[in-house]
Amino acid sequence: MKKIKLFLLLSLVALTVISCRELSDNPIPENENASIKDITVPQGFNWETTSDIEVSIAISGTKAYEAKSKISIFTNNPSEGGELILSGTATPGKALSGTIRIPSSMTEVFLKMESPYGEVKTANVPIQNNLISYSFNEKSQGDFKFLSDPECDEEGDIIITQTSGTIDIEGGETYSLSGNFTGDVDFKSSGGTLKVCGNAVFTNNVQLNANTHNLVVTQGGNVTVDDLSLTDGDATIYVYSNSTLNINSNFSPKGYVYNDGLIDVDGSWESNVGGVFDNYGTILVNGHMTLNAATYNYNGCKIIVEDKFHQNSPGCTFEMGEGSYLETGDDCEFTKDETIFNDGAMIKCPRFFTNNQSVFTAIGDAIVWVTEEMDVKGDINGPLTIAYDPGVDPDISGDLTNGANATPVGDVTLYLPISGCNPTGFGSPTVLDADFDGVPDGIDEYPNDPERASNSYFPSEGVWGTIGFEDLWPSTGDFDFNDLILDYTGVMVKNAANDVKDFNITFRVRAVGASFNNGFGFQLENVTPEQVESVTGFIHESGEMDISLNANSTEAGQSKAVIIPVESVENIIHRTGSGSMFNTIPGGGTGTYDELQIQVTFVEAIANNDMTLQDFNPFLIKDQMREYEIHLADMPPTDLADQGVFGTSQDDSNPNTGKYYKTSNDLPWAIMFFEQFDYPIEQAEITSVYNYFDEWAISGNTIYQDWYSNTASGYRNLSEIY
User: By Cβ atoms counted within 10 A, which residue in 136, 341, 490, 559 is the most buried?
Assistant: First the structure.
């Protein structure tokens, strides 16, 4: 805390002359920092410079379209130097979820989605309330994807109990029909909503001709209508999952139609001006289907038309969603405006015609499969393949650009799987998956290993973090946090289900500001020794500690998996000069250091939620005394620690309350950083080096979260940094 005191203001000139601390590098505009021993931090503050963020990254698509996509999370756009934090897989039915640890100062991340068909999408996503939540949604209009099915007989509904006669929908009320009904339904001018969860047969011409008219088929309901008119642009029809709407005539919708179930039209479908449909289920049309002017038409699953399909008139947009399917028994004709193909979409028709006013845009790899005849006069942009059967003359006069092509069926390498939306699929699975783990080789980090598929890095790919220790516990020291400067960088190797198969971590000792001969280890809080297959890379050569190991090289006598990388840090540093200090005194003892690579492999992959950075518990072993462990604040000791030392000297640990390795005023003996820390020189208290450390601590990590990484003037005193 910067304290402005009157006598200091009066003595400013003298202070600049006689100050015992050199502040000329980045002077603080206020005054002296408080000593760490004099500050008060919020109860429960554990001195973390990081935040644990929940992640939920979804990809959209139809319910049955289960191809895996790769999701990557970066610190920033990789083209601008952003580093990879995590990669994993997601399907439309299962989001990539878990927890990542990042510096608290980060406010957003960069996301990248790679589909199995080569499509790439990116997004900058803010971090809000310790959550990264995003959906890569292929849909360009509307917000109705997979709406929750409403229930009948909800509070406020008018319950219909009659089984015949006429139902009047009026007064803006909501009516619920859960039983069986045969008769008429009359939507009055005052309007309302009819929800059908039972079986209804409407024998009259049902007219939805006002903006207050709404028909909802839900909860497995089945509605059969002899004639249905949807003539107001704001009138709506909703058909939810496992529900059916049968129309025994032609259908010419002008309002909004949402389908996540089945719409079966025993006639033709003609979209009128202003009409919109969003299809995530199945639409069956026994006649032709024509999409007319000023309509938006989205197919997110399956449409089968017995006769001709015609996109007609200006202002008509037709979009094929990811993994969607359209099949016709006659011509597919596109004469006006835009047709959009998302990744994995497919149209199958005997004859395919486009005129010079049609525009096709493919966002991802998609197929038009032509079996008899084709004449393409319109332009096609993007990776759309027109696959034509033997005997078809590829008559093409439009421009095919950016991957668009016309190719004989036998030469097409693109593969689309059979799914609940695509009943035929296309081709053979030429998207290679050598290890058969469900992740295509092109997006599999380990294409020949079925137990491994992706990497999750900490802090991020190619970036080192630092843990700074004080080693006099249970007594306090000089709070320069350089008694051991331990850098780390690691990767959790995950399988196709995003569970952790390997925990690989590399250490280096950058500085030793102590006279003790220390070692270090780490505990995995949610892993037992029996779950570990092997540990490799450790060095036990000091001869002063008798570390007993299990057959898998975890430490024996522990209920949790404990790994001791080195018994003595002297085994991985190389001194040039005398004295116990190493890289902490300017002009003093210095040298180089090795990188120690530890690989922990698990018998079976550990569930993603049980293997996070929250569960990584590093500790210093003091002066070759195995029972003396120094952990991060509030992290528990291992079974071999001497808990009798708790509560002695300045330590105020209390296992009953979960308080560990803190003093009575909650000061720590170690701090962990998710970036490389520029540590203080010997005996320079951290508050004298970093000018906003005290304000950060007093706030409980709510302000000055970049106190250690910000190099702007006023943040740090360079002469006190090694």
Answer: 341
